[in-house]
Amino acid sequence: MLRRPLAVLVAATLPLLPLVAAPAYAGEPDPVAPVHRLLSSPLAARALAAAEHPDGSRDQTLVLRDLRTHRDELGATDRARADALLQRPGGGQSECFTTVCVHWYSSGPERSTQTYVDKVARTAQSVLKAYAAAGYRAPEPDGSLGGNALLDIYLADLGSQGLYGYCDSDRTPTDPGPYDAPAYCAFDNDYAEFPSHTPLENLQVTAAHELFHAVQFAYDYDEDAWFMEATATWAEDELYDGVNDNLQYLAESPLSQPASSMDHFEDYGVRQYGDWIFFRYLTERYANAEGGLPTIIRDMWGLADGAKGGPNQYSIQAVSGALGDRGTSLRAVWADFADANRRPGTSYDEGRANHYPTGNLGGRVALTGSARDSGWKTRRVDHLAASTVRFSRAPGMRASSLRLSLDLPATTRGSGAVATVYRTSGRPTTGPIRLDAAGNATTSVDFGHGVKYVEVTLANAGTDYDCWRRTDTGYSCRGKPLDDDLPLRVRAKALR
């Protein structure tokens, strides 16, 4: 699990590794059988480097998943190093509780006390109980590995590596599936190295985050990484709302970076963790709950289910499907979400109290008595991103309304728009702009006395990809986005 203070957002530089071969072309099978491979593919070498040099810049859960997934692309020497990393942690002592078994050292630098072991067990069982009550699938049993079929939790000095915890699986699903897998987890042995919160608070949010990964494995071990991290970060906020460790990621999120695509997993960044705010937005608006947790995220994982007989949709497909089941669409929600993020203090239940950030505007246009027409303003917007243009009025300018003309790509490509009128007093007035199928619209909004400015949010909810490319792209379905850099045009004219 990733944990970093806001001030420490430094990119890591990994050392070059030996035994690296040129890759096969994207989409082609690996031509070298694992048993005969002498050199490692670049993807596998990078996965090994990340696992061997953890620095707290990436969740070790997905580091180990990537290494396990690419293990057979490693050369013989590298594969032996990987196998050592993919072993379960040790522990001379074990105790099983109702739903988990805890393994720990009673002496040495990684020692844990019995009191701490009991605290870990209570916390983990409370988290798993909450997920079960909400209708989530339980982590899959691992047979006799670890001693029995209960979920194993190993305690080790992970804090010395900058890690709070992780989960992994001993089994790697392969194509064509099924893709579900059992799990085991590891937590730090005391959380003494992390001063941002108390040891108990760090244990709590780590358990909520990592055990949600264990639940995810029961649906799809190989699901898109951004979706796994964003929903796991969302889960820790739902279970332990008062800790607020997830607030650190909002500096790199759709709130503060609306022009960046939401579904991009960064190897050495935190954007995928900041994406939790999108799922928070959804759960505040689709609040139907079971067991105290909103059902919409559970329903997404039900659609992403890659176990035998599951729909096996990839991340953004599952998001779109769950919204469709609620009578709306990703296109409509994305535009509303992007507009709401211009006012996070009032758009979110905790926005004001927790000082949610507001992103920069995409453009500002000042209309005057002699320049009442803005002309066409073009913003090039990537998929699952947005840009907001503000139209303001000069002091003393007389106008009654603002005529808005929009020229966006076809709605089948995800185009959406929202206009919000901000006044000198009172709450802003927001309304979607109805586009025709071609992405065009003309509408008027109030621009009379008492209006400070009007903002038009231009949203791109495009979800077309060239999927399943052999190289890991970090986007949904490991694909190349086909809806990036789209021109979205808006024009405003002040009318008397």
Q: What's the number of helices?
A: 12
Structural class: alpha+beta
The share of residues in helices is 25-40%
- Tell me the fraction of residues in β-strands, as a range: 15-25%
Examine the secondary-structure arrangement and name the CATH architecture of the domain at 363-495.
Answer: Sandwich
Q: Assign an overall shape.
A: elongated
CATH secondary-structure class of the domain at 363-495: Mainly Beta
**Could you name the ranges where pLDDT drops below 50 across 5 or more consecutive residues?**
2-31
- At the third CATH level, what is the topology name of the domain at 363-495? Jelly Rolls
How many distinct beta strands? 18
As a whole number of angstroms, the C-alpha radius of gyration is: 25 Å
- Give, in spatial order, the strands making up the sheet with the most strands: 1-2-3-5-4
- Give the mean pLDDT: 91
Secondary-structure element sequence?
A: HHHEEHEEEHHHHEEHHHHEEEEEEEEEEE
Euclidean distance between termini CA atoms: 57 Å
